[in-house]
């Protein structure tokens, strides 16, 4: 097992990519803490994963945009397990609108969750990793952080910011043996995708045709990369933003 006895936090873990990462981490032997605003859903997911893998999972209700919530969650995890080995900043939101139509409240919310939430959890967890001289931080960005996408001015900007934050985190924490990398998913079959972009079979075919491998991504495709980046196999990689898009975009 690649992550045996590791203590891992996954934010936004109740569903979608976060759930897939939490499950695969558990399958690889990790004790996974599922942090999500939707506590009941996170608890159901945690119980489901634990039943399937036989490994301990812990759901915690957290508003990642509130420093007090984040710090309280991290303190609780340290009290329970004594350390944190892996952090996955997965929680995110999207709102589609042209820049000229984007509401300021929606813009602020997207940055608050996607960027500030990632910063707050990174800051709190890094302080616990530094004394250990090791740790893996993985931020979920997006292909939209690498390329412009129509009606995603706020989302693209926020996910580009996540990549910038990833690189500075890698630069500042490398001296402590802490790796920080980002994953940039392409179109991945999830509740968020189905409710915002891929809303019909015709649109799904259009997205599939954009890829070299001619397929829509699954949450498990992102989870596999998250396992790699959390494991010892990636010890010599930091500050990277890995595109996982079936060849939707390449070399950016």
Would you write up a description of this structure?
This protein is of the alpha/beta class. It has a single domain, classed as 3-Layer(aba) Sandwich (Rossmann fold). It has helices at residues 16-27, 39-53, 67-81, 104-129, 153-173, 191-196, 201-209, 219-230; strands spanning 7-11, 31-36, 57-61, 86-89, 135-140, 178-185, 241-244. It has a 7-stranded parallel β-sheet with strand order 3-2-1-4-5-6-7, sandwiched between helices. Helix 2 links the parallel strand 2 (31-36) and strand 3 (57-61). The chain is globular.
How much helix is in the residues?
A: 40-55%
Mean pLDDT: 96
Question: At the third CATH level, what is the topology name?
Answer: Rossmann fold
CATH superfamily: NAD(P)-binding Rossmann-like Domain
* Largest sheet geometry: 7 strands, parallel
* CATH class type: Alpha Beta
Question: How many domains, in number, for the residues?
Answer: 1
Low-confidence stretches: none
What is the secondary structure topology, with strand pairs?
Layout: E1 7-11, H1 16-27, E2 31-36, H2 39-53, E3 57-61, H3 67-81, E4 86-89, H4 104-129, E5 135-140, H5 153-173, E6 178-185, H6 191-196, H7 201-209, H8 219-230, E7 241-244
Parallel strand pairs: 1-2, 1-4, 2-3, 4-5, 5-6, 6-7
């Amino acid at each position: 097992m690649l992550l045996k006895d590791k203590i891992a936090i996954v934010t936004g873990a109740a569903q979608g990519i976060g759930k897939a990462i939490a499950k695969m981490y558990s399958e690889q032997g990790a004790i996974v803490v599922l942090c999500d605003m939707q506590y009941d859903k996170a608890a159901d997911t945690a119980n489901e994963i634990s039943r399937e893998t036989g490994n301990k999972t812990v759901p915690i209700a957290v508003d990642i945009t509130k420093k007090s919530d984040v710090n309280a969650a991290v303190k609780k995890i340290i009290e329970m397990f004594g350390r944190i080995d892996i952090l996955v900043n997965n929680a995110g939101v999207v709102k589609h609108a042209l820049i000229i139509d984007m509401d300021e409240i929606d813009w602020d919310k997207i940055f608050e969750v996607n960027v500030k939430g990632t910063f707050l959890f990174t800051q709190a967890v890094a302080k616990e990793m530094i004394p250990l001289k090791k740790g893996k931080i993985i931020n979920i960005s997006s292909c939209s952080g690498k390329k412009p996408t129509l009606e995603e001015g706020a989302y693209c900007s926020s996910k580009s910011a996540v990549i910038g934050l990833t690189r500075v985190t890698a630069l500042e924490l490398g001296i402590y043996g802490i790796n920080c990398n980002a994953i940039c998913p392409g179109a991945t079959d999830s509740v968020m995708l189905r409710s915002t972009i891929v809303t019909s079979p015709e649109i799904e075919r259009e997205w599939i045709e954009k890829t070299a491998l001619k397929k829509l991504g699954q949450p498990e495709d992102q989870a596999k990369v998250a396992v790699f980046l959390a494991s010892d196999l990636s010890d010599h990689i930091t500050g990277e933003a890995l595109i996982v898009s079936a060849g939707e975009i390449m070399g950016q």
